[in-house]
Design brief:
Blueprint (H helix, E strand, L loop, with lengths): L8 E4 L2 E4 L4 E4 L1 E5 L2 E6 L10 E4 L3 E5 L1 E6 L15 H6 L1 H4 L5 H17 L2 E8 L7 H14 L2 E8 L4 H4 L9 H8 L6 H13 L8 E3 L2 E2 L7 H14 L3 E5 L3 H11 L3 H7 L7 E5 L5 H9 L3 E4 L1 H6 L7 H6 L3 E4 L12 H12 L12 H16 L16 E5 L11 H7 L6 E6 L2 E5 L2 E2 L4 H18 L1 H23 L11
Parallel strand pairs: 1-6, 2-7, 8-9, 9-10, 10-11, 10-12, 13-14, 14-15, 15-16
Antiparallel strand pairs: 1-4, 2-3, 4-5, 7-17, 17-18, 18-19, 19-20
Helix pairs in contact: 3-4, 3-17, 4-7, 7-8, 14-15, 15-16
The structure holds zinc ion.
GO molecular function, one term: hydrolase activity, acting on carbon-nitrogen (but not peptide) bonds
Family: Belongs to the metallo-dependent hydrolases superfamily. ATZ/TRZ family.
Protein name: 8-oxoguanine deaminase
């Protein structure tokens, strides 16, 4: 393991990508105490005692920041079939269930390994434990990131309704034996979950500059109003950020309207949830009023284009989000619904997707826009914008070094355009977090990858074998869920209003 260099370091001779300016230019960096101490013109004087680091032929970027992922699903790469979000949730008990506390650590390490190798140095991780979160589970997840040398916000996912209870009419549409089957899956009470979260927040054992806790009532429809209010009060008491999936699917938007007689966004605002510490994941099925409200409250949206494509959820209107003043970061979402944790892929998709919303190229997102989202925007979602997401004096030395000799940058015409449109992560030679080298010569320095791989393969076999009966049970019910949800999305089935919350 490479320790943090005690001596200041002068990184000389590289090109540096600055997200705030949307530019790439030659610059030398002085790193001191794990932070960026100075940025100077090439060759300009830096302290004599600084160790010289040669960055010739390197492009240096800030570490990318993943604004939305779920480490417990790092086990489920390649498992999702032709599933919409609703079928993904229906299958959740076997894709993401049956894990123990040791698995929390293992899967956080697996997530960290992939992200670090692909230039991502911080993430917002929403972790599900059933039937309720535990301090041991959350602390183990956090330890997985801390030991990998990565930064993270780790949040327990909260719900006091199951998926089948959350959508009005779905449970009732199932045949009796299927209904009995899903009724056997229960969530712990909101009181029990909030008490566990209180212990998580009060006894957090990690350095909060590296790994900090938050709260994630997972989906508005999955949490009762009292649960939401309790989570908000807890977050306020502990200064913890909040995160929820918001209007990810058309069905959620319709079900929200039926249950609350207003949009999901208005419902959350009525409960006092929205604010600068709130991140909404996806935000695909939002109206103009919703975006304006999120913008007024200073909230963030984590845009997850690869997941949205994989689940056929729809196209998020990112230019409209930005126009409404919403802060936008980029996320990969879980390996069960995008199969990877690659922010280069996400940046590229975000850029391409914006081209589907308008015939006017002036409306399209630029490489500089999406690069800023994957760095500064996501850092803002994590509440770490004063520490990460940029290359400026005082910020942490969370840096990615890419080889400009790689085929992705050859010929070198426009480094920023090639970073977004050509790079996939394979040019990365070195990654540092707080000045500590965590990837060197494209290899992890903090994780024994062959051992991690062996453990992951073993646990995936064991967990999915143990979950096989539940998988079969849910597969038998899936056609009914599919029929109801597809009918709802297509307008063939109407939802009964349910004012009860
Ligand atoms: Zn998610």
């Amino acid at each position: 393991m490479t320790a943090l260099s005690a001596r200041p370091q002068a990184i000389r001779g590289g090109l540096v990508a600055f997200p705030a300016e949307g530019t790439v230019r030659a610059a030398d960096l002085l790193i001191e105490g794990g932070r960026i101490a100075a940025i100077v013109a090439p060759g300009e004087a830096l302290p004599d005692e600084a160790e010289r680091v040669d960055a010739t032929d390197r492009l240096i970027t800030p570490g990318l920041v993943n604004a939305h992922t779920h480490s417990h699903l790092a086990i489920a790469k390649g498992m999702a079939r032709a599933w919409t979000l609703e079928l993904h949730l229906h299958n959740g008990p076997w894709t993401g269930g049956g894990q123990n506390v040791d698995d929390r650590y293992l899967l956080a390490q697996a997530s960290a390994a992939e992200m670090l190798l692909k230039g991502c140095t911080a993430c917002y991780d929403l972790v599900l434990e059933l039937p309720t979160p535990s301090p041991e589970g959350m602390f183990a997840t956090a330890a997985g990131y801390a030991d990998a040398g990565m930064r993270a916000v780790v949040t327990p996912m909260l719900a006091d309704r199951t998926f089948w209870q959350a959508i009005p009419g779905l449970r009732e549409a199932l045949p009796p034996e299927a209904r009995a089957s899903v009724d056997a899956i229960v969530m712990a009470s909101s009181d029990m979950a909030l008490a566990a979260c209180e212990r998580v927040l009060a006894h957090w054992p990690h350095d909060r500059a590296q790994v900090r806790p938050g709260l994630a009532p997972t989906i508005p429809l999955h949490c009762s109003d009292d649960f939401w209010r309790g989570a908000r009060a807890l977050a306020d008491r502990h200064g913890a950020p909040m995160h929820a999936h918001l209007a990810e699917s058309k069905i959620q938007a319709l079900a929200g309207q039926a249950r609350y007689r207003m949009s999901l966004t208005a419902h959350l605002d009525r409960l006092g949830i929205l604010g600068p510490d709130f991140t909404a994941a996806h935000g695909i099925w939002l109206g103009e009023d919703d975006l304006a409200l999120l913008g007024r409250r200073g909230a963030c949206i984590a845009h997850n284009p690869s997941s949205n494509f994989r689940l056929g959820s729809g196209i998020a209107n990112v230019p409209a989000m930005i126009a409404a003043g919403v802060q936008v970061g980029l996320g990969s979402d879980a390996c069960s619904c995008s199969d990877h944790q690659n922010l280069f892929e996400v940046m590229r998709l975000a850029c391409y997707l914006s081209r589907t919303a308008s015939f006017d190229p002036d409306d399209w997102l630029t490489p500089a826009d999406v690069f800023a989202m994957a760095t500064r925007g996501s850092a803002r979602a994590l509440g770490m914008q004063d520490l990460i997401g940029d290359i400026c004096p005082g910020h942490a030395a969370d840096l990615v070094f890419l080889d400009l000799g790689s085929i992705n940058f050859t010929p070198l015409n426009d480094a920023l355009y090639q970073l977004v449109f050509a790079e996939e992560g394979r040019s990365i030679t070195r990654v540092m977090v707080g000045g500590r080298i965590v990837v060197e010569d494209s290899q992890l320095t903090t994780i024994d990858y062959p051992a991690l791989r062996a453990q992951l393969n073993d646990r995936a076999r064991e967990i999915f074998a143990a979950n096989a009966p539940r998988r079969r049970e849910l597969a038998a019910i899936e056609p009914y869920v599919k029929h109801f949800c597809v009918g709802l999305a297509q307008g063939r089935i109407e939802l009964a209003g349910n004012p009860a919350t």
